[in-house]
Design a protein that fits this description.
mainly beta, Gamma-B Crystallin, domain 1
């Protein structure tokens, strides 16, 4: 079973309530909810009782200020545990209510429903296998909705305000990573453990001079909200950040890179907004200039897999992490210029 803890105040303080399954009305347990810890499993939390209102997907991790994380002031009034049974994924959706109109099948993630199916209106659906998330906008942005196995004769049955669906993602069981930040070198001083993304580590420590990655792979960032210079860390000990990875004591956010086993496909474009000359890659490339006769790329579309972009050839210089999705300009992946010298797939290295 899963385990989620709701706290009345920020930073996991005040009265709290633990839950390991569905709860249709949290207001009987807490006056309010300002921070959340998901210690095991994945949950959907809802703005209103009885699993209604705006929905938010939470996987294992810490959310010290829930409203800052969501960007809204919605309350949390109910929650639903998402079972992670090993299974295939199979969904069928329709262009009209009650399974009428054009029928479309889906068995994998879809970052843009419009690009793949030439429509983004889904009026009804039949989920045969797996748990899914519907997003209001492409690339997994906007309001989200949990879609569990079963029949939905109209969009209101999954909580949608309209038939518009921009993207669809499978909810898959992910082997979690674990990273430990230490204030002093050689793993001394105050420490903080993290098993998921964290947009602002400054709430846990003032400085970081050594890091231990016990499992998984992470990107660490010099600024909050995954901004500034990025550094890729695989499993291992980094007893002195400055000497081992070239970063000072300012580590302000981190992102866990999920383990991925599948195909890799990435498209690089000459101009902004995925326009101009396009090159597609499905493997590592130590020198883009030699292979493609160009090294300036202003936008990208990561179709499959997780990648690292390097500023210089042979995997040197500044590095940038690209997850599946569209990057309409180089600043979207954190680049300070369109120059890309080499590119590498992030494979299961553990």
């Amino acid at each position: 079973m899963g385990k989620i803890i709701f706290y009345e105040d920020k930073n996991f303080t005040g009265h709290h309530f633990e839950c390991s399954n569905d709860c249709e009305d949290l207001l009987h347990k807490l006056a309010r909810c300002s921070s959340i810890k998901v210690q095991n499993g994945c949950f959907m939390v809802y703005e209103k009782p009885n699993y209604t209102g705006n929905q938010y997907y939470l996987r294992r991790g810490e959310y010290p200020d829930f409203h800052h994380w969501t960007g809204v002031n919605d309350p949390v009034s109910s929650c639903r545990y998402i079972t992670m049974e090993p299974s295939c994924f199979n969904m069928r959706f329709y262009g009209r209510i009650e399974f009428g109109g054009q029928m479309m099948d889906l068995m994998d993630d879809c970052p843009s429903v419009m690009d793949r199916f030439h429509t983004n209106d889904i009026f009804s659906c039949n989920v045969k296998e797996g748990n899914w998330l519907f997003y209001e906008h492409p690339n997994y942005h906007g309001r989200m909705y949990l879609i569990r196995p079963g029949e939905y004769t109209r969009f209101s049955e999954w909580g949608g305000r309209s038939a518009r669906v921009g993207s669809i993602k499978r909810i898959m069981e992910i082997t979690m990573g674990k990273i430990i930040f230490y204030e002093d070198r050689n793993f001394q001083g105050h420490s903080h453990e993290c098993v998921s993304d964290c947009a602002d580590l400054h709430t846990y420590f003032n400085r970081c001079n050594s890091i231990r990655v016990e499992s998984g792979c992470f990107m660490v960032y010099e600024r909050p909200n995954y901004m500034g210079n990025q550094y890729y860390l695989s499993r291992g000990d980094y007893s002195d950040n400055q000497r081992a990875i070239g970063i000072g004591d300012c580590v302000r956010s981190c992102r866990m890179i999920p383990q991925y086993k599948g195909s890799y496909r990435l498209r690089l474009y000459e101009n902004f907004d995925m326009s101009g000359q396009m090159h597609e890659l499905d493997d590592d490339c130590p020198n883009l200039q030699d292979k493609l006769n160009m090294s300036d790329f202003n936008s990208s579309n990561v179709v499959d897999g997780h990648w690292l972009l390097y500023e210089q050839p042979n995997y040197k210089g500044r590095v940038h992490y690209l997850r599946p999705g569209e990057y309409r300009r180089y600043s979207d992946w954190g680049g300070v210029s369109p120059r890309v010298g080499s590119i590498r797939r992030i494979e299961d290295l553990n």
